[in-house]
Structures are given as structure tokens and as C-alpha cells.
Amino acid sequence: MTVSEVRQRDTQEERMGRRRGVAAVRGAGKMLNRLPTWAAVLLIIVVVLALWQLVVSLGTISELVLPSPLSVGGQLVIVTQQLIGGEYLLGQLWITIQEVLLGFGLAVTVGITVGLIVGQTEFGRKGVMPIFVLLDATPKIAFAPVFIAWFGFGIASKFLMAAFMSIFPIIVGTAAGLAATSEEEIKLFRSMKASGWDIFWKLKVHRALPFVFTGLKIAVVAAVTGAVAAEFIGGGIGFGEQVRVAAARIALDRVFALILYLSVLGLLLYLAVAWLQKKLTFWDQPGRDR
Amino acid sequence: MSSMTRTRSEETYAVSGLSHRYPAGDVLALQGIDMVLPKGSVTALIGPSGCGKSTLLNILSGLLRPTDGGVTLFGSPLTGPPDEVAHMFQKATLLPWRTTLENVVLPIEIRDGKKAAKAAYGKARDLLRMVGIGDFEAAYPQALSGGMAQRAAICRMLITEPEVFLLDEPFGALDELTRERMDIELLRIAKDSEATVVLVTHSIPESVFLSDRVYAMSARPGRIEEVIDIDLPAPRTLDTFSDPHFVDRVGQVRRALNRGHGYDGQ
Ligand SMILES: Nc1ncnc2c1ncn2[C@@H]1O[C@H](COP(=O)(O)OP(=O)(O)OP(=O)(O)O)[C@@H](O)[C@H]1O
Ligand SMILES: [Mg+2]
Fold first, then answer.
1. What pLDDT, in 10s, does the model give residues B227-239?
2. Which of residues 220-239 of A touch B (CB under 8 A)?
3. What is the pLDDT of residues A237-286, one digit of tens each?
4. Do A290 and B87 touch (CB under 8 A)?
5. A residues 186-205 near B, CB within 8 Å?
6. Domain segments of chain A: what residues?
7. Residue pair A80/A87 in contact by the 8 Å Cβ criterion
């Protein structure tokens, strides 16, 4: 056996060993890929929580800086009890829910109306829409102190902030949606002597809906952010204030528990919008127009 | 016939000296088109892609105003989409949020409202059954094949019982056998309702089989190369396809198209 032959055999064995390792990883990967969504999400959450607990339990990170999942869980139970008991905390959550719903409702009404006006004309789409896109790109949250200054410490400044945070995607989505109708469809309606009203209601509105919903899904999450941000800045009301107070006491486990509730609020609203979208735009399958 | 009181012209369409130039790209799509379409006649337009067939149909349906020349419908100048005309476009263009049945009654809904549209469901079902897609009335267009969508679009065109059918490659997505069946069905409906038909096709045999007259066109700019009268007896059946006279006319159309293409002779 020459040296080169030996080297060749070595590398061959190495390669085969590596291949076996790769195959094992691939097998595990395939198993993971077969998991249903809920199981995959659950698996990741459990692994992350376990690692998190481990890191805190081992003392790598102090409980003061990062509360353990178990203590957050404990706080979650306390917060839930306080909510169910109908105490002060429930009233605060209700204030935040009102702010979000009022703000989102306002953004939907005004946003769709403005979007319809802007999207109706070529001038609106070319001249006015870029301005709204630009406004949407600003860090809108920085305006929260301005809203407090303008509209006071009450609920008004909060829901107006929520509306401000969420209105732009709705305007842009609606305006863009109005341009989504194809030339052929307009021709079809014109050949049937359809009125402008019919073309709007029986055609353009349907074609616009998927775009409107894209805007609404971004908006509903932004509305929660806007309301909570305004609560942080001033007024001493709402769930955001509870978060701020707990954080000031460095009760981070309670902060996490409260944030979890805010996340659930955002998620529920998002799911409601997504559900409505599925109902109304069930037909929206790209590339299957006949 | 002189005793007949004529309230309307005997001709459905009269086109004279018609030209159309698209401003976009400055394309001369049609030049010097003259044609007379008698009432109850079937006319086929055939020619290379881009020779202006769809443009001509759009002008006949009042969707497009020609840059030059005149078009009269039943003796009066065309100013917009007329009631008597139904147009079937090259693309089926079904609305994906409506079922097949709801798509078929759309012209009724737009003309007479929702109630009238509901009342027309029975008639729409008959039409769908006639073109062989009766089982798909409740399906949404996404579930239809291209050929099925075209047949639904034909039903949508027929539902208003128009006097004039403008058809832009109506059977382009159909297999040969279904296509022949649909051709025969279409002729029967047209004859029964005494409708005037203008039909664009890329199939030479189909153009001869269906029509009383074939306009062979050539491109750049779109012109009429030759008008070929098809003097085949009615009713036309599957036997027509093997009639020597039919084969003759097919050859004549083919030669006209070749000439338009600049292939002179063969
Ligand atoms: N809206 C438009 N704007 C500019 N040019 C157009 C427009 N529509 C058609 N054209 C041009 O006019 C010419 C004729 O087009 P048309 O669609 O009438 O052809 P066609 O005979 O129907 O072709 P095909 O058999 O491919 O359907 C083409 O050169 C096309 O590029
Ligand atoms: Mg065409």
C-alpha cells in the first residue's frame, strides 16, 4: 500500500463517517418537517422555556435581570386572579381595550374613506399616495408625546395615537386595491353598459379587498402598540401604565405576565381580522383567474 | 319585399373606410376596412396574430371609437355599447368571487337588478347544461379549466338573448371534438334567434364551417386581404367537413392568408 493509497482510504472512511452523520441529521430534520404546525410551535416554546429556566436556575443570569419562566408563570396566575376577581386591573385592561378598538375603528373608517378618495384618481395614486407611504415610514411612535400635549392625559390622546399608528397601511392598502382591477374586467362591465356605481360595487370593491385586508392586518397590531405607547408617556391609565409601574418596581416577572396579556389582546384582534379576510376573499388565489 | 315597412336597416353592421391608430406606440392597427354584415349572417374574421381582429370587435361593440371612418348598427351610427350586442372576449374574464351560475347571470343583474338575475337562474342552468358544464353551476371559476371557463363565458353572452354576437376566439381553449360540437350548437342558436354573428378564429376549417363569409386579414397595418363567400348549404353538420366544396373553400382561405403573409403561391 502506497502512502497515497492509505491517504485515499482514510479520506474515504472519513467521508463515509461524515455521510452517516449527515444522514442522521437529515433523518431528524425530516421528522421535524413532518410535524404539524401546532406541535412544531409547541416544541420550540418548550425548548426555549427549558433553556431559559436552566440559564436562570444555574445562576448564569440573575433573577433580577431575567425572571425565570416559573416565576413569570406564578405572576401570570396572580394577574389572572386579579383580572377574574374584577379588581382594579380588569378596569385598566378594559380601558386599553377601549382605546385600541376606538383607535382601530377610527383608523378603519377614516383610512378606508381617504383611501377610496385617493385611489379613485390617477392623480391621487401618483401624487397623494407617496405622501402617505412617506408618513407611514416615519417612526410614528415618536409622536406620542405630541398627542399627549394636544389631547391631554385622558383616553382621547391614547386612542388617537392608536389610530395614528394604524391608519396609513389602511389608506395605502385601499388606494392600491382600487387600481387592482384589470383592463379586461372594466371592458367586460362597459360592454354590459354597467354604471360607474355597478363597476365600483360589483367589481372594484371585490378586487380591492385583499389589499385592504393586508393593510388591516398590519394596522390592528399597530393600534395596540400605539395605545400602549401613549399610556407609557402619560396619564396614569390603562394596562400600559401597569407595565410601567411594575417595571419601575423592577418586578420584571409581573411585567412579563402583563405583556403576555397584551400580546393575547393583539393576537385575538389579528385573528379576528384574518378570519374576516378568509370569509370575504376566499376566492383570492394568485394565478387562478379565469 | 318592397311592401315591407322598414323601421330598421336590413344590414346589421355597415363599416366604411374604417381605420384605427392606437396612440400608445403609434400603432396603425386597422386600415381601410369596408364591410357589410347582413342581418342573420355569420361572419368569420381570420388573420395572423396582431392583425387587428380584437380591435375590430372592440369597435363593433362600441367600446372603442375608431380614429377614422364610420360604423352603423341597424342604420344608425354607433356611439357606445348598444343593448342588442353581446361581446365575448378573448379571455373568459369570469369574476372569481361569483359562482359559475352567478357569473352567467351578471349581465341580467347589471341590466335589470338582482331580482331579475335570480329569476334567470333557470335559463342560465339550461345554457350551462347545453354547453356541457351543468354540474359546475355552483363551482367558483378557479375550479374550472380554461375551456370550461370559455363555455361559461358563452353562456353569459347568450343569457340576454342578444341580436348580435361578437365572439373573440370563443373556442380557442377547447379540444377538437368538443369544439366541433360547440360550433354546431352555436350555429343552431344563432339561426334559431336570427342573430348576426361576428367571430374571430385562428382555425381555417372552423372559419369556413361556421360562416357565410370569411374576411381573411393581413397584418401591419391590419387590412382585409380577401372576402370569401362560403356557399355551403345549411344546416351544416359533421358531414360538411368532408364535402369537397368545403375543402375547396378551406384552400381558398388558406391561399388568401398565405398571400397576406407574403408567401405568394404555396
Ligand atoms: N390598447 C392598445 N394600445 C396600443 N396598441 C394596441 C392596443 N391593443 C392592441 N394594440 C396593437 O394593435 C394591433 C392589433 O391588436 P389586436 O389585439 O387587435 O390583434 P389581434 O388580431 O386580435 O391579435 P391576436 O390574434 O393575437 O389576438 C397589435 O399590433 C397590437 O400591438
Ligand atoms: Mg385578439
1. 999 988 878 888 8
2. none
3. 899 999 999 999 988 999 999 999 999 999 999 999 999 999 999 998 77
4. no
5. 187-194, 198, 202-203
6. 3-67, 70-284
7. no
Q: Cα-flanking dihedrals φ and ψ of residue A93, to 5°? A: -65, -40
* Neighbour tally for A199: CB within 10 Å: 19
What letters, b where the CB count within 10 A reaches 16 and e where it falls short, cover A3-17?
eeeeeeeeeeeeeee
Measured between CA atoms, how close is A280 to chain B, in angstroms? 9
Q: Are B55 and B134 in contact (CB under 8 A)?
A: no
> How high is the pLDDT of residue A8?
58
Residue A182 Cα to ligand 1 midpoint, Å, equals 17
Helix (H) or strand (E) holding B82: none
CATH code linked to domain A70-284: 1.10.3720.10
Distance B24 CA to ligand 1 centre (A): 11
What's the whole-model pTM score?
0.82
Residue having the nearest C-alpha atom to atom 18 of ligand 1: B52
Smallest-distance ligand from the CA of B201 = 1
B42 backbone dihedrals φ, ψ, rounded to 5°: -115, 125
Q: Report how far apart, in Å, the C-alpha atoms of B96 and of each of A280, A284, B102 are.
A: 12, 8, 10
For B27, residues 6+ apart whose C-beta sits below 8 A from its C-beta are B21
Confidence check: pLDDT of B46 > 80 = yes
